[in-house]
Amino acid sequence: MPRRFTTAAGAGALAVLLVAGAAGCAAISGEAAGVQRLEAELRAQAADVAREIAGIADETGLNDPADAIQEYARRAEPLLPSTGYAPASDGWFDVDSDATASALVLVAIEASDAVTWQEPVGALVLASRLSVVVDGGLRERDLCLRVELDRWGPTADFDDDHAIAPVVDCPESLGSVTPEPDVRPIVVVPANAEAVATEVLAAAGDETDAELATAITARLDAPSGEREVAAEVQVARDGERIGFAMGTPDDCLLLRAEGGVVERLHVSRIQLEPGELGCVASTALASDEALRPPH
What we know:
- This protein is 29% helix and 26% strand.
- By secondary structure, it is of the alpha+beta class.
- The protein has 2 domains: 22-88 and 95-168, no CATH class; 186-284, no CATH class.
- The strands form 4 sheets. Strands 3, 4, 5, 6, 7 and 8 form a 6-stranded antiparallel beta sheet that branches. Strands 11-12-13-14 form a 4-stranded antiparallel beta sheet. It has a two-stranded antiparallel ribbon with strand order 1-2.
């Protein structure tokens, strides 16, 4: 037989239990609502960061997934201090002051073992400390989000915050991590490259490709910026016609010389990409029709 309260004392005890239970449920419900609100805000912020740093497919020196995810981490790091959630104020008192979240911090950089270009390069794990006030007491917990990235950006639907930044278990050690410094050389075209190359090519006689390239290289100004290196000088000959190239798709110097006359060529960036014409000497020797921008 189930136990029944048959006295006033028993009924009072039941009332106390019911009130205590209701209070406990209210506290749990209040905490859950606060956490849910913070979680949604932080996931949206993490997704915004992922969208902001998207796109390293055109970067040089990032073929290894470990290098690629480090570059994403370097891009994300300066954006994180502006995340988090603090109570808004209307000038008199804080609004929604029962829930706050610290700025997201980078707690893990996970490189993938991808072997193809299209696969994810890894993931960034971000963490925040959530603080919720319930019945005058402060309750805290850590929230961790994992953002998986490929060479074009987040692997999830670009517009789906929750898919981009799912909640995951936090690492055992929750200390912040620092991305490796970027040591990739910055390839530049020296300021005097066009003038030097024009002079050498205009006066060219029977020199070989290599001899012309050496003569130009010897007269170039040395780059002075941090990590800057001069782009390789490329020269190609087709009879009396000489093609010159130097730089990258973002900054490509192309010259064509024939009969002592040197002209600078302007080619669309997309045509200078690897797999297209490229920033190479043979591009300078291509026909004008081949160098026309794609429609």
